[in-house]
Amino acid sequence: MSTLEIRNLHVTVETPEGTKEILKGVDLTINSGETHAIMGPNGSGKSTLAYSIAGHPKYEITEGSVTLDGEDVLEMSVDERAKAGLFLAMQYPVEVPGVSVSNFLRTAKTAIDGEAPKLRTWVKDVKGAMENLRMDPAFGERGVNEGFSGGEKKRHEILQMELLQPKISILDETDSGLDVDALRIVSEGVNRAKDNTGLGIMLITHYTRILNYIRPDYVHVFVNGRVAEEGGPELAERLEAEGYDRYLASA
Amino acid sequence: MTVTDHTQATADAAHSHGIVPDSSRADRVVSFDVDAFPVPTGREENWRFSAVRDLKPLFADEPADGHLEWSTSDLPAGVTLTEIPVDDAVVRTVRAPGDRASAVAAKHSGGAMVLAIAPNTVVDEPITIDLNGAGGDVRGHLLVEVGTSAEATVVITRTGTARYSELVSVDLCDNAGLNLVLQQQWDADAIHAGEVVARLGRDARLRGTVVTLGGKVVRLNTSAAFAGEGASVDLFGLYFADSGQHQEHQLFVDHAVPKCTSRVTYKGALAGASARSVWIGDVLIRAAAEGTDTYELNRNLVLTDGARADSVPNLEIETGEIEGAGHASATGRFDEEQMFYLRSRGISEEQARKLVVRGFFADLIHEIGVPAVEASLMKQIELELEHVEEEIEDE
Ligand SMILES: Nc1ncnc2c1ncn2[C@@H]1O[C@H](COP(=O)(O)OP(=O)(O)O)[C@@H](O)[C@H]1O
Ligand SMILES: [Mg+2]
């Protein structure tokens, strides 16, 4: 049982126009086995929240705390956060030319576990996970995200999540830009990981469609750098019908 | 990160970066007469980024007493290695030297070595020539002659130390194919100025790879000239400069006849405060060279503060009737997003750096096409990476 606790998180970035506050006091608690949908309009700060938790150097935490099972996440380096059990499936996964997917996966697994995985089971695990995500085995020899289509990149993110077995996973618009078939495949992967490991999930999304495939326990409406409203799955249905206008007007 | 990418460059020299050359590349002096080249001061167009002070001994118009120890793999049938007098070498060399060091090397070599592949001979195994220096001044002149429709791979590796100047002539007869690998694996104090001049006959194919990892100063200039239609050159280069190393590679591809293809791909990494690299890539498409297809690329990865990479692509085009002509040059630090991505998967900063550098070179290494060289190169890059970590700790 793990708990990610975000308290009064304030985050700024440097822009050409000066320092800009993007997160303005975020409170959120995610436990193992729970799925929290974070829904909000473009530019509301969802990716900033995801990156800040993962430790991206562009974002400066000016106030608040993030802990994982009581440990101060903000004190950890980027790789320490991953080793502590956090995972970020990125909205725009980065290409790393010349580094093969299989080498990357093995290196990451070894780093997270602190020891190299047993070769035979590892090869089998990777093969099985790729099959489940309908990824051609040839992906293993390609450069990380190099020339991948949008959908392939997202599947590759979920592949990593399944293999690295984090405690808490942040999925930043993993559904965006996917057709329905790909969405179903990716969602199955997320549900599988949750069933297998009791993963806690922060499911950042712009659209309600993915919620037909991944049932959220909680829905948080994210507007202008903070959580504007919280509720159960019924809140998503309301957003579906009404959109974000109601929140934007008052923001 | 600065990137220039001109897929269709103009016919003048206006987009050469930095100093605009005063004249066409075609007008550069070439001569076997040492006196045709004044001793370089560092102000000349082709010496302005060079480590002229260290190279000084290589400009002296006098014989040298040192030599490199040759060890050569067993030569298969149809392949010979012979020594010829200087006068003969001058006649058989495909083009006169383009600078003083090279002219001095040809004049004072004391005799040139000729590696000849007989016409129609196809050699499967790489021919390897190891040149080891035990110090001192050395002048060398080597000719590689590949007969009509012959094919071979030649790997020349320099080790040890010397103050070495050389001229390498590469003569590809019609339809010949050569994969030539030149490895600079010198000890840390070696000084090396070399010029490779290649001529390609009709339908000939040259794949040339330069690997520069060792030495204090290495300046290795490669010129390839097309003498017959339908020929192609692929020139690859890989270099890794640490503190105190100055590595310079100049290229000149001379498209003088129609329907030839050239690709130039050089990649370098630099680590350490005084690490220095220079890349100058000149491509000339003469009026007669219709249907030319050319692209040149130089990328530099600057791993620490203080290291400096100069990259100057020049494209001169005298005909509009070409297939394509372009160049790209990019010099940058580690990509922050790549590092973040890798580290967000638990990979340590040090290991992420190594992955990125290996990845940076990986495609280039796989282009060499000589498995033994590729494997040893991966190992050497690993060693370089260990140095990088030391440099970064020192920062
Ligand atoms: N690195 C950055 N530099 C400058 N502005 C940024 C940066 N990251 C985010 N922003 C700005 O912060 C706001 C929130 O962005 P983001 O977190 O990407 O929102 P969302 O993911 O909800 O669309 C936007 O106005 C965006 O332009
Ligand atoms: Mg976003």
Characteristic terms for this protein:
heterodimer, A: 251 residues, alpha/beta, Rossmann fold, 6-stranded mixed sheet, 4-stranded antiparallel sheet, B: 395 residues, 17-stranded mixed sheet, 17 strands, 18% helix, globular, disordered N terminus, binds adenosine-5'-diphosphate, binds magnesium ion, Fe-S cluster assembly protein SufD (chain B), SUF_FeS_clus_asmbl_SufBD_core (chain B), SUF_FeS_clus_asmbl_SufD (chain B), Fe-S_cluster_assembly_SufBD (chain B)
Walk me through this protein's architecture.
Chain A: Keywords: ATP-binding, Nucleotide-binding. Chain A: Belongs to the ABC transporter superfamily. Ycf16 family. Chain A: InterPro entries: AAA+_ATPase, ABC_transporter-like_ATP-bd, FeS-cluster_ATPase_SufC, P-loop_NTPase. Chain A: This is Fe-S cluster assembly ATPase SufC. Chain A: Residues 4-249 form the ABC transporter domain. The complex is a heterodimer of chains A (251) and B (395). Chain A has helices spanning 46-54, 78-84, 101-113, 119-132, 150-164, 180-197, 233-242, 245-250, and strands spanning 3-15, 18-31, 35-39, 59-68, 71-72, 86-89, 96-100, 143-144, 168-172, 200-205, 218-223, 226-231. Chain A has 251 residues and is of the alpha/beta class. Chain A has one domain (3-250): P-loop containing nucleotide triphosphate hydrolases (Rossmann fold). In chain A, the strands form three sheets. A six-stranded mixed beta sheet of chain A has the order 6-9-10-3-11-12, sandwiched between helices. In chain A, strands 2-1-4-5 form a four-stranded antiparallel beta sheet. Chain A has a two-stranded antiparallel sheet with strand order 7-8. The longest helix of chain A is centred in the last third of the chain and has 18 residues, at 180-197. Chain B has one domain (11-334). The two termini of chain B are 21 Å apart. In chain B, helix 4 (336-343) crosses helix 5 (349-367) and helix 5 runs antiparallel to helix 6 (371-394). Chain B is α/β, with parallel strands linked by helices and 395 residues long. Classes of the chains: A alpha/beta (251), B alpha/beta (395). Chain A binds chain B through residues 54-58, 77-79, 81-83, 87-88, 90, 93-99, 103-104, 107-108, 111-112, 143-144, 160, 164, and chain B through 335-338, 340-349, 351-352, 355-356, 358-363. The complex binds adenosine-5'-diphosphate and magnesium ion. Residues 46-47, 91, 172-173 of chain A line the site of magnesium ion.
